[in-house]
Amino acid sequence: MNSVRIRVFGVIREIVGSNEVEMNISGPVPARDLLDLLAKKHPRILEWQPYLRVAVNHEYLPGGATVSPGDEVALIPPVSGG
Amino acid sequence: MEPLIEIREGTIDEHAVRTHVASEDAGAIVVFTGTTRAAAGGRTVRYLEYEAYRPMAEKKMAELSGMASRKWPLTGVAIVHRTGRVGAGETSVVIAVSAAHRPEAFEACRFLIDGLKSEVPIWKKEVYGDGHAWAGGDAVSGPGEASP
Fold this sequence. Notes:
The complex is a heterodimer of chains A (82) and B (148). Chain A is α+β, with helices and mostly antiparallel strands and 82 residues long. In chain A, 27% of the residues lie in helices and 32% in strands.
């Protein structure tokens, strides 16, 4: 498996226009790079970038962490449950 | 007692949530009910639409429940959150906590709703007559929104 699923929610889902995006990666990459790639395709993501958290396999990632092929990545905009 | 952790479409049976934490060992049950406001930032909300990243949201809710149970001697925890369309004034979340004494039940319930609002991946869209906006959450705002 040489790809990651990136699930998107809320305002990011609306910007991207679908629930998830698949990206090809050949090995571990910094989560930040995936976000930059996605923002290149969908520039409106840039305004949300400072507020986004990245989750991998249902866990929030510490800043600077890497993502590996096969991981389930999610972009988490500011949560507003309750 | 196993905690009740649930994300569901459709209305929440508040009595069932409360009943889940009832116990002969409990001297207090605290129930928090979150309801939706009809006004947001001076605009009238027609309805709200909740969206969840379900597997992670349920995991985070279970983690919060575990943290609360380690922090306080609780006899029961239940957290139920709605998704989908929720009309103004309706219930969107119910948290019930039971304990031998009321201080820990109050404190744990407060901890759980605060934790849910900052850590659990659930989003609320406010739908107005002429558009919609994603609520920015308690702790952080998005671009163009005033910081609380």
